[in-house]
Write a structure and sequence with these properties.
single chain, mainly alpha, three-stranded antiparallel beta sheet, 4 helices, 59% helix
Length: 137
């Protein structure tokens, strides 16, 4: 007896359709209505997210306009106290900040190295987060 490839193909196709129909019929009937995905975030994670957002906003304001309101001045003063000298910031965004040392008369003494600016950028973020966390109720 000779079986053609056409007949084998038909048998495989029908068998595949039967398997698919059995899978569909064995599903629960309420599977068509899917519940929306739920994401639960702990209160501490929400607090951390809010602190990060507020901190980045404060750093952006300090970067673009300098420290003007009380929190910005407090953060920048803490940074200057930690460094030990008066500072000024130059740069367009928080990732490319260049810090400059300012003398008592308000004139720029020198720009800090890339490594020092990178460290002060890190400290600015850290101090800002600490200050925001402390000020949040």
């Amino acid at each position: 007896m000779v079986i053609s490839t056409y007949q084998v193909n038909n048998v495989l196709r029908v068998y595949g359709e039967q398997l698919r129909q059995n899978r569909i019929s064995s599903r629960p009937k309420n599977d068509n209505i899917r519940s929306p995905d739920k994401v639960s975030i702990s209160a501490e994670a929400k607090r951390k997210a809010v602190i990060d957002k507020i901190s980045s906003d404060i750093i952006d304001k300090i970067t673009h306009y300098g420290p003007h309101d009380d929190v910005e001045k407090e953060v920048f003063q803490k940074l200057e106290n930690e460094y030990g000298k008066n500072l000024a910031i130059a740069g367009k965004n928080p990732n490319d900040l260049i810090f400059k040392v300012i003398d008592e008369s308000g004139e720029t003494v020198n720009s800090l190295s890339i490594e020092d600016s990178k460290f002060l950028r890190y400290k600015l973020k850290e101090i800002t987060k600490e200050t925001v966390n402390k000020n949040m109720i």
